[in-house]
Write a structure and sequence with these properties.
Oligomer: heterodimer
Number of strands of chain A: 0
Distance between the termini of chain A: 19 Å
Structural class of chain A: mainly alpha
Distance between the termini of chain B: 11 Å
Number of helices of chain B: 3
Number of domains of chain B: 1
Largest interface: A-B, 51 and 58 residues
Strand order of the largest sheet of chain B: 3-2-1-4-5
Mean pLDDT of chain A: 85
Shape of chain B: elongated
Structural class of chain B: alpha+beta
Low-confidence stretches of chain B: 38-42, 44-48
Mean pLDDT of chain B: 75
Low-confidence stretches of chain A: none
Number of strands of chain B: 5
Radius of gyration of chain A: 18 Å
């Protein structure tokens, strides 16, 4: 259990997907104008990353590794992610059409989110077992959601601030993102201890 | 920031596609991962989402609505969070719970994977139950706010 907790802290904070690995920056800048939108997108992404990591682990373990098909990894994982998004969409539509109408907007956006593919490829590098890979994927996407929510909160405050005209909009957003990344670098001290 | 915007609502744009028998059908406009309209093709994502948009059409009372009009619709922030928790949070918790419990009992990778899939199924059943209670409470129905102006983009904020 201690290993799993360390894995969660490492994936969510120390090696944060957005601020340490620079993945998923498009949605990081685009969907973080309001906290609730960011949280909605973050939860949908967390779900898809976790579910697709299960499929990626099975395909890597039972197909790509035994038959030495590593060169097909990226293409295969993209297919698995697209299938996971379709699966999620189908199931949510079946579970509750009203829920699908409310949340369906986020699902198509996830297919083009490079954080999803990035996490899947990191799982292969880590050579983990099933539970480790699923928990790693969950924790990485939790880190993604956390940063989205924090950044959205900062941008809501900045929208009310008197920012110089030249810095208004995306420039001050990028400056804030870089400061946030520097703050998260502080967590790397945890891995040194 | 538009001072007339309701801060408790997440807003989006929907187009009226039909009005029949006092009921209007609206289709939400789609955004891309970077928050722009699909038609703008800003971040490399183009169309091809027609079927998804058809599936997301919803009905409202059709008084005063005309086909082709664009309306700003809103859903409360709290409802969106509750819906997200029901759709994604519950299945994720049961998925992880099933897998971790199986491994704690000494199961191998195969059994842990099966336990996770089983947990996911149970999570979806719980999500279905939770969605019904949200639906009965009217939490999942978007409300029409006002007609969209020419400057209103299709982003959801």
């Amino acid at each position: 259990m201690r290993d799993l907790i360390l894995l969660i802290v490492g994936a969510a904070l120390v090696n944060n997907v957005v601020l340490a690995r620079f993945l998923g920056l498009c949605s990081f800048m685009g969907v973080t104008t309001k906290i609730d939108t960011a949280v909605g997108m973050g939860m949908a992404t967390t779900f898809v990353i976790t579910v697709s990591s299960m499929g990626d682990w099975a395909i890597e373990r039972f197909l790509l590794m035994p038959f030495d098909l590593g060169y097909l990894r990226t293409v295969t994982f993209i297919l698995v992610i697209a299938a996971a998004v379709q699966f999620t969409e189908m199931v949510i539509r079946k579970v509750s059409p009203a829920l699908f109408q409310t949340l369906g907007i986020y699902l198509p956006l996830i297919t083009t989110n490079c954080a999803v593919l990035g996490v899947a490829l990191l799982l292969v590098e880590g050579k983990m077992n099933f539970i480790q890979s699923t928990v790693f994927a969950f924790a990485s996407s939790l880190g993604y959601s956390l940063v989205m929510a924090i950044f959205a909160g900062l941008r809501e405050r900045i929208a009310l601030a008197d920012v110089p005209r030249l810095f208004a909009g995306p420039p001050v957003g990028f400056v804030t993102a870089s400061l946030l990344a520097m703050a998260f670098m502080g967590f790397s001290g945890m891995s040194a201890n | 920031m538009d001072p007339t915007r309701n801060r408790d609502l997440i807003e989006g744009i929907a187009r009226v596609v039909s009005v029949e028998g006092g009921v209007a059908v609206l289709e939400p406009e789609q955004t891309t991962a970077c928050g722009h309209c699909v038609s703008a093709s800003v971040c490399g994502q183009k169309g091809g989402l027609g079927d998804r948009l058809v599936a997301r059409r919803f009905e409202v009372p059709g008084d005063g609505l005309a086909v082709g009009e664009r309306w700003v619709i809103g859903i409360s922030e709290r409802s969106l969070l509750r819906a997200s928790m029901a759709a994604y949070g519950l299945p994720l918790l049961t998925l992880l719970g099933g897998g971790v419990a199986a491994q704690a009992m000494g199961a191998g990778d195969g059994v842990s994977a099966l336990a996770s899939v089983g947990g996911l199924g149970i999570g979806f059943l719980l999500a279905r139950w939770r969605a019904r209670s949200l639906e009965d409470g009217g939490d999942l129905s978007p409300t029409l706010l006002h007609r969209a102006g020419s400057g209103d983009m299709c982003h959801t904020e």
